[in-house]
Amino acid sequence: MAKKRVKRRKLKRKSFLILFVIILIIIGILLFLDNLKIKSINVSGNTLYSEWEIIEKAGLDDYPSTLRNLSGTIENRLEDDPYIKKAEVTKSFFTEVNIKITENLPLFYYVPERSTILADKGKTKDNFPVPTVINYIPDKLYTDFLKNLENTDYTIIKRISEIKYDPNDVDEERFLLTMNDGNYVYLTLKTFDKINNYLDIIKEFNNKKGILYLDSGEYFEVLG
Fold it and tell me: Which of 1, 165, 168, 187 has a C-alpha 20 to 30 A away from that of 147?
């Protein structure tokens, strides 16, 4: 009976030593990872903020420990910003961080409300180089107008100076866009996506100034 007790004690000691070694290995790995610094940061999808501003907002400007800055933690920091709709963060080889930004873009300054309107329908008093909507848009059209503008290429949005809700007897969904280059564009909610082709269309008229009718058909009236 005494021999069996000795064997049991030896087995317990062996199991304890194995467990102790495993714990030491885990602690060693954690200490190694804790001292492992982020070495590379890639940012995409940003237009409002520079790459460095995104890195600062992510809390990674001093390239800290990768273990103390998990992907979810970085995402939460970025999504606290009202102009960032979504942040997707992945890591490669622990030390390379990839950040993909989906922005909550400012779309236009709405004179009736004296506010800049964001893609999520939010409002801000901050100033941005966006079009000015100079008059009231009826509630029944406002949501579709906002959606159309959200789907417009942002480089084109920046080329629009003013937007006027300008219905006529034919179409109550008609808008007049004043472009920064001196041209005017008529659109409706149904034809709004044509504004994405503005640069290609306008090239055909050899830099002449005029009115581009995209509300019905597609033709250009030269002014002057």
Answer: 168
User: Is residue 144 included in any domain, yes or no?
Assistant: yes
CB 118 within 8 A of CB 104: yes
Total domains in the chain come to 2
Sign, CA dihedral 27-31-32-38, equals positive
Residues 122 and 79 occupy one common structural domain: no
**Helices in 35-131 by DSSP H: which ranges?**
51-57, 71-79
The pLDDT tens digits along the chain (224 residues) read 555 555 566 666 777 777 777 887 887 777 776 668 999 999 999 999 999 999 999 999 999 999 889 999 999 999 999 999 999 999 998 899 999 999 999 999 999 999 999 999 999 999 999 999 999 999 999 999 999 999 999 999 999 999 999 999 999 999 999 999 999 999 999 999 999 999 999 998 887 899 999 998 888 899 86
Same domain assignment for residues 56 and 130: no
**Pair 134, 209 in one domain:** yes
Asked if 94 and 104 count as a contact pair (C-beta separation under 8 A), the reply is no
> Where are any strands of DSSP class E within 63-173?
84-92, 96-103, 106-110, 115-118, 123-124, 132-133, 160-165
- 20 by Cβ neighbours in 10 Å (0-12 / 13-18 / 19+) ranks as exposed
Range of the domain at 61: 40-103
